[in-house]
Design brief:
The protein is mainly alpha-helical. The chain is built from 25 helices and four strands. Strand 3 and strand 4 form a beta hairpin. Helix 3 crosses helix 5, helix 4 runs antiparallel to helix 21 and helix 9 runs parallel beside helix 11.
């Protein structure tokens, strides 16, 4: 049963990129069953893995752990449901809270945590782990590079200019040029048209996958130098640049540079490997090539693009008399409405109608938190400088704080006012911050904090047992997991998306296994380092 469980777990992890295809999350496919078929497939797989795991693992401690955790979740959910039922806002319907949706969200958040346990209890030697990483890297980075080359990739960020020079975003369009367009005149400053994400759903989620896989791909290049691993490393670097996010571009550059140092450390300090010029030479060449390409890449070109964007906005406002006149009229009419003491609802509707001219995000003003229901809030936002109004994350936080303040329930800090409410507001982006508002401190401790605690625990254990457990494999796994968590804090779209969290959980389970001494990363009880046989320590036997 254990071997069958291992195979099913491998298949489940390898197919994750297929389950992040954009169209699986869009109508009409997502409407057929009321949710994405990718989510249903994941739930069925985790159910099968759960049954197989319980049959293969007869540990009483493990059963007690599951029972205790489940009991805590049930108690928390009951209290969370009770607290969410007392919610009050200025928006009719209170953002349509759903008990089923809330329970479903908790199930989704628990699934990756369960995979951590299964992965921790399952032995993956270096050869098997390399197979998993190679497949994932080929599917993620390989597909991004290929679709970019063919010019059929979806754009990571595609925008067009609206009235008054305000940017409107239109997602899911194809890129305007492939990697060769980076070096042309038309590609200069065209960040929004050239950043490509393959056929995946969210650029930030793809960034997470790239940051998860790059340290591990490089680890296998160092330990098993061959053409396949060199090609995969090149694909990781190219995909990081083509994706266009700062995290992926800077992250891949930083990881390659870091692993040159890491490799030399494990060669000359711990003597885990024999030095190979081919390894260092290939990493240096890939780093130099990536660095040279970076200048022309969407991310490297972003500053130029954004400067041109600002110039275009200024030009539109300055040179188009009609647009300039329209914007001025909007502000003047709004002032007249306020002087006449027009009703809040009338002023709010006017703000919604002219959100673009007022430099406000139309989705926020019309759908997420309609101005007609809380005009005072949006009046206060209009006092912000234009650049601050267009800082959408700052505006998101302001809306969350406003909603929480109106509810004025001190228990929200512990129990949260509901994920479905937050998602119906359309403002799920800042990981950990969004979970704080949605699920409260207790919910965060049960559903999100385990990732952070495992990383900290693994770091302590690796340092505490430095001679036996501070191996390059464990360090690569630790860097992979830590970078992913950092990305979730920095950019969002990680912890609420199963593609990223399931990959993170699988590798985090392997990290925990190595940090606790449950696995040495090879199929046997001993390992060969630099041609010598070691047994648990780096002293020659």
């Amino acid at each position: 049963m254990a071997s069958k469980l291992k195979k099913v777990l491998m298949i489940f992890i390898i197919i994750q990129p297929f389950l992040d295809i954009f169209w699986l999350y869009q109508p009409p496919i997502s409407e057929w069953l009321g949710m994405s078929p990718a989510t249903i497939i994941r739930i069925l797989f985790v159910g099968v893995i759960g049954v197989m795991f319980l049959l293969a693992d007869h540990s009483k401690r493990m059963n007690l752990f599951f029972a205790g955790y489940l009991a805590l979740l049930l108690v928390y959910f009951a209290l969370h449901q009770w607290n969410a039922g007392q919610f009050h806002s200025l928006i009719p319907g209170n953002f349509a809270y759903s008990t089923f949706g809330e329970l479903f969200y908790i199930v989704r958040m628990v699934m990756p945590l369960f995979i951590i346990v299964v992965s921790y209890r399952t032995e993956f030697d270096d050869h098997t782990l390399e197979t998993v990483v190679s497949w994932l890297s080929g599917l993620v980075s390989g597909s991004i590079v290929l679709t970019n080359l063919l010019g059929i990739s979806l754009g990571s960020y595609l925008h067009q200019w609206g009235k008054g020079g305000i940017i409107k975003q239109y997602a899911r369009q194809h890129i305007t040029g492939n990697i060769f367009a980076w070096f042309t005149t038309s590609g200069q400053g065209n960040y929004y048209g050239l950043a490509s994400k393959g056929f995946f759903n969210h650029a930030n989620t793809v960034s997470a996958m790239i940051l998860i896989l790059t340290p591990l791909v490089i680890y296998f290049l160092c330990t098993n130098f061959n053409a396949k691993n060199v090609i995969l490393t090149v694909l990781q670097a190219l995909a990081g640049l083509e994706l266009g996010t700062k995290a992926a571009a800077y992250g891949t550059l930083g990881i390659i540079a870091l692993f040159i140092i890491v490799y030399l450390f494990f060669v000359f300090i711990t003597r885990e490997f024999r030095f190979k010029w081919a390894v260092v030479g290939s990493l240096v060449l890939i780093l130099l090539g990536t660095g040279l390409l970076f200048h022309y890449s969407p991310t490297g070109n972003r500053q130029v693009s954004e400067a041109q964007t600002e110039d275009n906005a200024t030009e539109l406002r300055d040179n188009s008399k009609k647009d300039k006149h329209d914007i001025k009229n909007v502000y003047n009419h709004l002032k007249r409405l306020e002087k006449r003491n027009a009703s809040d609802k009338r002023v709010g509707k006017y703000i919604e109608k002219h959100a673009s001219e007022l430099a406000l995000n139309e989705e926020f003003v019309k759908k997420s938190y309609p101005a007609r229901y809380d005009t005072n809030f949006w009046r206060s936002i209009l006092k912000w400088p234009i650049w601050q109004r267009m800082n959408y994350r700052g505006l998101q936080n302001a809306i969350w704080q406003r909603v929480s303040g109106i509810n004025n329930n001190s228990k929200d800090k512990l129990l949260g006012f509901g994920y479905t409410r937050l998602s119906n507001m359309g403002l799920i982006e800042r990981d950990f911050v969004s979970q704080y508002y949605a699920m409260g401190i207790i919910g965060m401790l049960l559903l999100v904090a385990p990732y952070v605690l495992i990383i900290l625990f693994a770091m302590i254990m690796l340092l505490w047992h430095f001679r036996s457990r501070f191996t390059m494999r464990n360090v690569a796994l630790g860097i992979s997991c830590a970078l992913t968590l950092f990305l979730s804090l920095y950019a969002g779209y990680v912890m609420d998306y199963l593609t990223a969290t399931l990959l993170l959980s699988f590798f985090m389970g392997q990290l925990l296994r190595g940090a606790t001494g449950a696995s040495n990363g090879n199929s046997g009880n001993t390992r060969t380092l630099a041609g010598l046989t070691f047994n648990g320590t780096r002293g020659a036997k």
